[in-house]
Specification:
The complex is a heterodimer of chains A (376) and B (518).
Chain A: H1 7-28, H2 30-36, H3 38-41, H4 45-56, H5 59-76, H6 78-87, H7 89-109, H8 118-145, E1 149-151, E2 157-159, H9 172-196, H10 200-230, E3 233-236, E4 243-246, H11 249-256, H12 258-281, H13 286-306, H14 332-342, H15 345-359, H16 366-371
Antiparallel strand pairs in A: 1-2, 3-4
Chain B: H1 7-48, H2 51-84, H3 87-121, H4 128-157, E1 162-165, E2 170-173, H5 176-180, H6 183-213, H7 218-253, H8 255-262, E3 268-269, E4 273-281, E5 292-300, H9 303-309, E6 315-316, H10 319-324, H11 334-356, H12 360-371, H13 373-378, H14 398-428, H15 435-461, E7 466-468, E8 472-473, H16 474-477, H17 483-514
Classes of the chains: A mainly alpha (376), B mainly alpha (518).
Chain lengths: 376, 518
């Protein structure tokens, strides 16, 4: 079945799958956003425990999605993996360090004799939420703004700045995406509390935070989106593979991929509806609208970055070193093999959703925290 | 065209990978094994309905949770380190290596992380049977997670199922099943997971023995010992069998590694196995770190030949045979391999230049030559050797490999004995009377960790200077970055992981002291 699809078709298919994983990851950063709200939503020890337990039962999904996103990128576009990870060394290692400290924090925070004290582990969680979202958002910003690298004829990367990727923060458009992801994750975190917690004070505070974070999110996101549509972009000549600058490239992508644009618009509306229905209509299900909206929006942005003859990881140092889904991809044989494996993804998603629903059937409350034998 | 990184960058990059891998392997084996032990215990709970089994299950689950968290923390670094520190390698093998890694993420990691949440938090939310299923799936997911990464590692030790594509300058997969079912990969998985089962069994028996010494949690301790001793005994016998298989695979595919781990310098027919040996400076060349004499050794005649080739009189090549060549037995001298490797590299360069110059005809001719079966067999097979000038650079660290291998093997047999005695005493009802044995069982816990680390040293130091056997040397695989940057991250991770390890140990010891919740 997949054997009959062209190499380009498979490359596009895998770009779509990588985009799905990226989109799911951004949605799942509600865990990170929620962590940064720890002190503004939880004031007493009991409240903090509720917050960290409702997040703590989901943190592994975010973590695993990040790991799988990395794995899928490695498998389908190994040249991106070797170029970006090896090149933008400091950015990626900072991101990883932020996730290392998260993995232990939930489990160790409340345990006796934990060496560093529960406060330190809470700070780990806040740091993870802060750095994880801002840095990843900023790094993904370079998909649209380019990075400083060149490749030799053995496809080995040479990074052209000693800051190894950290220079991405000098481009405000990258940072705007990073901050959008950060404030969005807080919006989603607040919505998640409202959705899953049975505790009046926490819900009231979460609503307040929802409002406070929606404003900067909209400012940064709209700036990012509008500037994206106005800026020149990195286009690829499909016949020669040559990369060149094209005015309004991303606007062109929006116009030339109308179906994707509908997804983008639906996504934005979904996020807004999730927020509005929670703030003004007392809905508790805003999390699902905003969550679905996030997945759709991020998915559509990824497609704008990589499809329609666009370079998804451009080099502003040497334009012809830029990565496209064609020159960075695995061989046809490997993509075909992996495509068969990808048929299992719906099955994996189905059991995750099924068990997620069972575990979240009842809202989390103080009473449950006192009864539960295993709590964070 | 091909640039080689400086020595200190390679060393620091190796140090960082070794640091993160060894820290990760402190926690992984316990996860691999204890999840199964917990699953057995919970099965007994569901079958018998006895609350005491539930209490036992929950106690070990708590310890598992503490271990799991830090295992995850140390694992994420490893995956991305292939890119951050070994980017040339990531491209060179990405077409093969990526697939198992992606499958691992999609299939195994999600299985593990979904069901582990149910296992910990689902006691009051799902039925008994669903909970049991979740526990089993966590164990299976954890062990499947290990499968794919070990398939990738196995491929690096014995590259199969691929062909080199000069256009992209990398290896491309042409047979997935060959990669997956390669003997090296299968052996690696079975050996590594069963070592985890053994470690977890030793862990459970050791902690239970401590309770018995302290005369507390008697019921929990005795029942746990019974489960762990049975599981441990079966696993340890299996561990030795898979280890034996691995050794044979190494003897055939990585004969330099085999010679190093046996400390065999001069090959012979009917070679003897040095069961225990101590190295001393070589009389002929005392300066050579890799050339040693035995100051003491206990040798079993002819056994090495049998172990390697199932033939008491087979010829086993030594390090000198592999470096200088041995015409009689058909071993090519290293200088010849180096020359052939250089021819392969040069041809690839000519092809790249022809492409760049736009000389399509020449490029096509060179491509045909490069991909022809004859060239692949006579020259490309030695591609990696072309990076070397001195044949001595092809020898791994012999003493480190030799000692690690022997420590691992001796401990492996010791664990069998430990499990036999544990089972014997617990069935006879005298376990808690043998104070010496209870103490020995506690001491065995760190020994199990040492054995596992030693195993990885054999696997990874023993195959140096290769990242991909015969095709890509370590020095060519590394990311081009300043050695100072890698040094900085090395120390950052060293401090971070050490602090987290100390925290983990303190929490673990405290939880053991507290004991099960009543």
């Amino acid at each position: 079945m997949f054997e009959n699809i062209s190499h380009l078709g498979l490359q596009q298919y895998w770009w779509v799958l990588v985009s799905v994983l990226g989109a799911l990851f951004v949605f799942l950063t509600f865990v990170q956003g929620g962590q940064t709200l720890l002190y503004s939503v939880g004031k007493t020890e009991g409240e903090k425990t509720i917050i960290l337990n409702t997040l703590g039962r989901k943190w592994e999904f975010t973590f695993t999605t990040l790991v799988t996103f990395g794995g899928a990128f490695f498998a389908s576009f190994p040249l991106f993996y070797s170029t970006s990870f090896g090149g933008a060394y400091w950015v990626w290692l900072a991101i990883l360090a932020a996730f290392v400290i998260q993995a232990v924090a939930y489990e160790y925070r409340k345990k006796p004799a934990n060496l560093l004290g529960s406060k330190t582990f809470e700070i780990f969680l806040v740091l993870n939420g802060l750095l994880g979202t801002i840095l990843i958002g900023t790094a993904v910003g370079t998909f649209f703004n380019g990075a400083m690298f060149s490749l030799n004829d053995m496809n080995q990367v040479d990074w052209q700045t000693p800051f190894r990727g950290l220079e991405a923060v000098l481009t405000f458009h990258n940072v705007a995406l990073g901050l959008s992801v950060f404030f969005l994750s807080r919006v989603l975190g607040a919505l998640y509390f409202i959705f899953t917690v049975d505790h009046e004070t926490i819900v009231t505070r979460a609503k307040k935070q929802l409002l406070y974070n929606t404003v900067p999110f909209l400012v940064f996101f709209l700036y990012f989106l509008i500037w994206l549509l106005l800026k020149e972009g990195f286009a690829v000549n499909p016949n020669t593979g040559e990369v060149f600058m094209e005015k309004y490239k991303y606007l062109h992508n929006v116009l030339q991929m109308p179906f994707n644009t509908i997804i983008l618009l639906l996504g934005v509306v979904g996020v807004l509806w999730g927020i509005i229905s929670t703030l003004f209509m007392k809905s508790e299900k805003g999390f699902w609208f905003a969550g679905t909206g996030t997945v759709l929006t991020v998915f559509a942005l990824f497609l704008i970055a990589g499809l329609n003859n666009t370079s998804f990881y451009p080099s502003i140092y040497d334009l012809q070193s830029s990565l496209t889904i064609q020159n960075a991809s695995s061989s046809k044989f490997t993509l075909t093999t992996m495509s068969y494996v990808s048929l299992l993804i719906p099955f994996v998603l189905a059991y995750i959703v099924y068990f997620w629903r069972i575990m979240n059937r009842k809202k989390i409350s103080e009473e449950e925290m006192n009864k539960e034998s295993h709590a964070y | 065209m091909i640039e080689i990184a400086d020595v200190s960058l390679v060393d620091w990059s190796r140090a960082q990978f070794a640091l993160t891998a060894m820290y990760h392997w402190i926690f992984v084996p316990l996860t691999l094994g204890i999840t199964f032990i917990i699953a057995f215990m919970e099965t007994l709970y569901v079958k018998t309905g006895k609350e005491e089994w539930k209490k036992i299950t929950k106690f070990w689950m708590t310890l598992f949770g503490i271990n799991f968290a830090i295992g995850v923390a140390t694992g994420i670094i490893l995956e991305f380190e292939f890119g951050t520190n070994w980017s040339n390698y990531s491209w060179f093998v990405g077409d093969i290596f990526g697939a198992p890694l992606a499958i691992e993420g999609i299939l195994a990691f999600f299985m593990e992380s979904t069901f582990i949440a149910i296992m910990f938090f689902g006691w009051n939310k799902v039925s008994k049977k669903t909970h049991l299923l979740a526990t089993w799936l966590t164990a299976i997911g954890a062990n499947l997670s290990a499968l794919w990464i070990l398939v990738a590692n196995g491929w690096m030790q014995k590259p199969v199922g691929m062909i080199f594509n000069p256009e992209t300058a990398r290896n491309e997969m042409n047979n997935f099943w060959e990669v997956l079912f390669s003997q090296t990969a299968v052996d690696k998985w079975l050996h590594a997971t069963s070592s985890g089962f053994v470690l977890a069994s030793v862990f459970v028996i050791g902690i239970s023995a401590w309770y018995l010494l302290k005369k507390r949690e008697i019921m929990l301790a005795k029942k746990s010992i019974l489960v762990a001793a049975v599981f441990g005994l079966i696993s340890s016998v299996y561990l030795v069998m898979t280890g034996d298989n691995s050794t044979r695979t190494i003897a055939n595919d990585q004969n330099m590694k085999f010679a190093a781990l046996e400390g065999l310098y001069n090959g012979s027919e009917g070679a003897g196995l040095v069961a225990i040996g101590v190295f001393t400076e070589s009389e002929t060349d005392p300066q050579n770190e890799n050339l040693k004499d035995f100051s003491m050794k206990l040798e079993i005649p002819n056994f090495l030949s049998y172990m390697a080739f199932l033939d008491w009189n087979a010829f086993v090549p030594g390090i000198n045979d592999l470096i200088n060549g041995n015409e009689k037995y058909g071993y090519m001298p290293a200088t010849e391999k180096i020359e052939r490797g250089k021819v392969a590299i040069q041809k690839l360069g000519e092809f790249k230049n022809a492409k760049k110059a736009g000389n399509g005809q020449l490029a096509n001719a060179l491509k045909t030559e490069l991909t022809s079966a004859g060239f692949q067999e006579d020259y490309f097979k030695y591609f990696g050797y072309g990076y070397f000038d001195d044949p001595q650079d092809l020898v791994p660290n012999v003493p480190l490999t030799f000692y690690s291998f022997h420590v691992m093997v001796l401990l492996g047999f010791f664990f069998i004995l430990l499990f036999v005695l544990s089972l014997f005493y617990i069935v006879k009802g005298t376990f808690d009377k043998k104070r010496w044995f209870m103490r020995l069982a506690i001491i065995a816990i760190p020994l199990a960790y040492i054995a596992g680390q030693a195993g990885w040293i054999v696997a990874e130091v023993g195959r140096q200077p290769w990242v991909v056997q015969d095709l890509m040397p370590t020095m060519a695989a590394v990311t081009r970055i300043s050695a100072g940057s890698v040094q900085t991250t090395f120390w950052l991770f060293a401090v971070l992981f050490t602090v987290l390890l100390i925290a983990e140990l303190k929490i673990m010891f405290r939880q053991i002291k507290i004991g099960p919740k009543h």
